[in-house]
Amino acid sequence: MTIHIPDDYPAVLRPSAAWPELAGRAEVVYFDTLPASEDELIERIRDAEIVLNIRSSQKFNERVFEACPRLRLISVWGTGTDHVDLAAAARRGITVKNTPGVSAISIAEHTLALLMAVARRIPQVDAATRAGAWPRGQSIQLYGKTCGIIGLGAIGRQFARIASGIGMRVIAWTMHPKAGDAIVELDDLYRTSDIVSVHLRLSDQTASFLGAREFGLMKPSAILLNTARGAIVDEAAMLDALASGRIAGAGLDVFTAEPLPEGHPLTRLSNVVITPHCAGITPEALEAGLRMAVENIWAAL
Predict the structure, then answer these.
(1) Cis before residue 276, ω within 30 degrees of 0?
(2) 14 catalytic per annotation
């Protein structure tokens, strides 16, 4: 059995505890650089039956599938499958597996960290204090505030528990509510929330889900959090809302273009805290996700 890994960069799988089992049970065709193009991705997996996909920057589309006729299984490290054309995969009998839930705690904790950093202005206060100033009285207390959660998957539910735990009033909207979920109308969530936290999957239904209209409904004091996918939020509308004071701030771990291009307008806004799509990459979540991605291969076989 041969397993192709076309994109382990920066390397996470090779140094992990999941690697010895993988290498011990299969021949591995391994690359620790990102393919420079779609053609290079095809070249790396042209003869593959099984692909273990590490980075979501690699797009598995109809053209890739057509060029790789032996492909039967893609095991994705991560929850998101928006970089895989699932309909095209189904038409060709290609099974796609992912690793849902393993990073939920890590991402929910990171969402809280972003919220605290924005509400307490930690980066600005830290920089000013280091420079010899003594800024005080610029923080927002979160206890008693309303936290609106969009998307009640594993991450959204975990963040709901955390937000409740620090004394916030939690309201939510989700595409697929479960029995017992107390769901509010989406426009009401935008109007009443002090914090709006996005936890949706990216799909045709959720691309640009938050745009100028939605920002227009929010409080001027509202804080936006996005640890899901950048394209769920209309970036131009968000930039306008942040720059004009239509909303108070944002904590962002995901962006429309990643890595974030040098000189991007978000990097110049003082009311934004940004991190490099790292919310789910703690040692605990990393090992659990990689192990599941490997075990998904054995299970599928």
Answers:
(1) no
(2) no
